[in-house]
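User: New here, please read:
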Amino acid sequence: MHPTPLLRRVPGDDASQYSAGDLSFIMVAGAMVFFMVPGLAFLYSGLSRRKNALSLIWAVLASNAVVIFQWFFWGYTLAFSPSATNGYIGNLRNFGLMKVFGEPSPGSPLIPSILYSFFQMEFGCVTAGILMGGIAERGRVLPAMVFIFFWMTLVYCPLACWAWGVNGWALKWGVLDFAGGGPVEIGSGVAGLAYSWVLGRRQEKELLNFRPHNVSLVALGTAMLWFGWLGFNGGSAFGANLRAVFAIWNSMLAAAFGGMVWCLLDYRYERRWTMVGFCSGTIAGLVAATPSSGYVHPWSSVVVGILSGGLCNLATKVKHLVHIDDALDLFAEHAIGGIVGLILNAFFGDTTIIALDGVSTTVDGGFMNHNWASLYKQICYVLATCAYTFVVTALIAKGVDMVPGLHLRAGPASEALGMDEVEHGEFATDYIELRRDFTAAPFITFDHDTKFNSHSPMAAGDRHGHTDLSVNDTTRSEDTRQTDHPPINEKNNANDQV
């Protein structure tokens, strides 16, 4: 009987140097961050018209798959390779996750690199999912997937390297960005504005009387995001420690106050307590907590929530001023919220909170620690991140759009039909089959004798009291309509059709 051979050990893979509690906490936190991806999908789906509801779910989930491949392929090494010294972007030392084992991670000695790479990958997945809101209602999904691969490579990875890389210029300069005010929030929000600018505005008729088609999905998506955000921010302490607890508490407070302030501002103008308003404010508070939650005291997060809820609400007017059709308000929610959190770090960042993870004992806070220079550092970081993101995103989008077969935007006819039908042939709510079988013809009602009447509009099935096809539909011939919709002679048949 031969003895079992000893396994060859890889240098730095000694698991005993890590706490099992820290490892377990970050694995669970990473799973919670993943849960934000379907949360985003439901949020975007609910905010769109029903004819585009599935397209946004598909785009968010598919971008998640693209990012997983990109991160494994070269995303992680471009963002976090410890041997890169240029301060801007990493090298290919860890290409394909090579040499990523059990050594202490670049972000914290509390967890190994292989776990850190997984956790940071989920951040990239969420960022890409947020950015997919830029294609709302007129963007084609295949070019968007090509775009997101290059965007992750040329925009997100450099931004992550700046803020969190061992030799990133922002980190070494003393910029305070806890969980991604720059890479995640400004990155997705400003990029969403740039992508929407390249795509162009929706047709004017698509902008008239626009309302979310399913507010229940908006609320569900927001709740899923709120849950996942606790792992997003809490896990950024990289261990089951007191700093993580404060990050979670700060996230809860900022979200609650952001939601209340946004809702109050909407009530002032509309005299309605809107669900979409409360959800929007909640997300704005969570966005602002992303860069700040691991640096500030809980009382400071009340200020963070109030300011983010108010300023993000006002920022929804920016898209009208610059004439960019940012359909889902990515800039107002994510870019402005991220900027609010980053700037407030300069005022409220405190080493008392920062040092609670047991390893960040040399990081300076803000004004709370008489670090007056932190304000201009935070402002410069915000300006650099915004400018780089907008310019490079627009160039990537323009470049992809110029490739034959990869034009980013669908045509006017496709936009009118909806991305679900044109791009997928499936529907979040399968109303389209009823329209084909019944309401694709001119408006149809029945008189008391169940005779055909094609002149009065239907009231059922649409929030505006009529179908979304015009009475004067010139796209189909009269002969085709008669063939597709034979006369109804029997009362039972009429009831079946209704």
In short: The mean pLDDT is 86. Residues 170 and 381 are 7 Å apart (CA to CA). The longest helix spans residues 242-270. Strands lie at 445-446, 452-453.
